[in-house]
Amino acid sequence: MSSIADNIESVTRRIQKATLAAARPEHCVTLLAVSKTRPADDIRKAFAAGQRAFGENYLSEAVAKIEELTDLPDLEWHFIGPIQSNKTRQIAEHFHWVHSVDRGKIARRLDDQRNAQHPPLNVCLQVNIDNETSKAGCAPEETTALAKTVAELPNLRLRGLMAIPDPNRNDNDIRLSFRRLAQLLDDVRQALPEYEGIDTLSMGMSADLELAIQEGATCVRIGTALFGARAPKR
Ligand SMILES: *Cc1c(COP(=O)(O)O)cnc(C)c1O
Fold first, then answer.
1. Whose CA is nearest to atom 6 of ligand 1?
2. Could you tell me how far CA 28 lies from the centroid of its own chain?
3. Angle at the Cα of 199 (from 15 to 141), degrees rounded to 5?
């Protein structure tokens, strides 16, 4: 079995190769290590191999690990799971980024609950890019309005968009979903011409990171390819 350090190296190589093949600048894609369901020790191993950004989906599990790992400097924590409104306070208090804001109410609560002494919370809006019935995310046509809401909140910093395409489709359809998300990011930028730093397209996971990078991803969220298969969903 390959080690976490080996896996980080091979995923980093996949990212470099895809970036080069897409004729995009070196180092324009960051690797977010998705450590949900994984013990804090796995995060220590990834840290020792140079990884700093970690993504978590389940809040109580995440907060326990964040508190256990305060001895590691420069960790960057990203919340990437669906958000219930009674969970916003802990997200605002413990995370640097959240990728899954999908409605104004959640954005306003995160803004209220973010300590104004801290740097603003970096926010990506999650878009339900394939209009799936049971998936989190705002409707594609609501994205710009939600972006304008977030842009006005002082303790949030709008950074971009996130999506999880319907995985039960062929590569070409997944590619087209990534392409639509990239187009929506352009629409958001045009709707907010004065707002600086909207630079993030969070898309691509273990199985489709190459497609996502070809379509402009700046952040790929990788779990399985780094840490191995997860136990079945609870
Ligand atoms: C679990 C998860 C990932 C990682 O998926 P893998 O297929 O294990 O790489 C990425 N993004 C989100 C939002 C997730 O929930």
1. 223
2. 15
3. 105
Within 6 A (CB) of ligand 1 lie 34, 36, 57, 80, 164, 205-207, 221-225
Give residue-wise pLDDT tens across range 18-76: 999 999 999 999 999 999 999 999 999 999 999 999 999 999 999 999 999 999 999 99
Cα separation of 145 and 82, whole Å? Answer: 20
Rounded-to-integer distance, Cα 135 and Cα 137, Å: 7
Task: Find the farthest-apart pair of alpha carbons in the chain and give their distance in angstroms, rounded.
Answer: 50
Residue 183: strand, helix, or coil:
helix
Cα 94 to averaged position of ligand 1 atoms, centre (Å): 20
Closest CA relative to residue 146, chosen from 186, 181, 101: 101
**What pLDDT, on the 0 to 100 scale, is given for residue 231?**
83
